[in-house]
Every structure is written in C-alpha cells, then in structure tokens.
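Dear Dr. K.,

Following up on our conversation at the group meeting, I've run the structure prediction for DUF1697 domain-containing protein from Salinicoccus bachuensis. I'm pasting the input sequence below exactly as I used it, so you can double-check it against your construct before we proceed with anything downstream. Let me know if the numbering doesn't match what you have in your notebook.
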Amino acid sequence: MIYVALLRGINVGGKNKINMKTLKRTFENAGMTDVVTYINSGNIVFTSEETSKDRISGTLETAIYQDFDLHIKVLVVGKEAFDDIIRALPDTWKNDREMRSDVMFLWDEIDEGSVLEKLKINPEIDTVKYVPGAILWSVDKKNMSRSGLSKLVGTKVYKMMTVRNVNTVRRIHALMEETELK
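The predicted structure tokens came back this morning:
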C-alpha cells in the first residue's frame, strides 16, 4: 500500500533537526520501500505491505528515536484517505501572497466533525471544512490577524495535528500518484 508519513515538529526554528537523506535510510531500514522525501518538514511517501497505520507509525517513531534520539510523532495517511482529502480541497484554494490555505491532518483521537467546535473560527473571514482525517482552512492574508487560524497555535487541538499548506499537500499527492504508477 502507498502511504505518506507526516512528521510533526521537525526542522522548525532550528529544533528537532533531521537530515532528509538520513531519514530516508531510516525508513528503508525500518522496512519501508519506494521511499521519497519532500521538502525538509517531514513528508515521506513510501510503500509497505503492512496495513495497520498504527503499527507503521509505531515502527517509524521507534526507528526515528533510535537513529536521531528524538521523540517525533508520525502520522501515517494511506493513499485512499489522502485521495479523499484532495477531492474535498477546493481547486481555488492556494497558498500565495493573497491567500493562506492549510490542511490540518488529525490524530485519530480528535478525528471527528465535532473538532470544529473546539476551534475559534471567524465565520466572516475563515472558510473551514472537516473531512475525515483533516481540517481544511482558508483565509485571505489581509484578514490573517482577525482569523481564528492565528489563535490555533498552543491549543490542545493544535497538539493533536500536523499542518501542511495546500501547495505541499498537492505535491505530496502527486508523489503518491507517481509511486502508484511504478
């Protein structure tokens, strides 16, 4: 099966530094195949015969700890679930000078529609959607200071997700598609 591992909190602000080439070897040594990393923020597309995302996450978290001496949360998303998230993502959403659009991938503990009730959403300027596995959030950059998105960091919910901008999410999906064609 094709998966992406989304690592939370690596190479941010000089903390939890992990070299992507070394991380690729860590994944391969842990039994993952067709391993491809994308940018320095911990996005790794791979294949595995294992079908339990929890077992894969546990294996990878252990391997990362052994190789880097870091406790890093690893969220594993299968290709079918990622496809569903991509289908729900509006084509008009982008991450550029005018618009900020993010996908917040959720840990199982908070992966339900009621998670939106725990967020400070400004309905006048924020567009927010829940889809299984993720929250999709978009706001015009001119409104960022009034957006609930700016109030998310540090909350309990924030600690149970890992965030990628839509450009990164679309590129990860393209890498998963390329892996499928191999």
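Two things stood out to me. Strands lie at 2-7, 33-38, 43-47, 74-78, 99-106, 127-131, 134-140, 161-165. The mean pLDDT is 94.

Best regards,
J.T.
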